Amino acid sequence: MFDNLFLEAKSVQTIDDFKQWTREIIRPLFPHETLGCGYGRIHAGGVGIDGIVAIDYPIEHLKNIRNKAGGLDTPILRRWLATREPQLFEEDSPWEDIPAQWLEHFQRNGMKNTAAHAVFDTARCIGTYHSFHRIPGTLSESHADTLKLLVPIMHEVLCRVIGDLNEVTQFGTLLSTLSAREREVLGWVGQGKTNREIANVVFLSEITVKHHLMKIFQKLGMNNRAQLVHRFVEYEERTGSECGLKVH
Question: Which among 206, 181, 180 has a CA at the least distance from the CA of 193?
Answer without folding.
Answer: 206
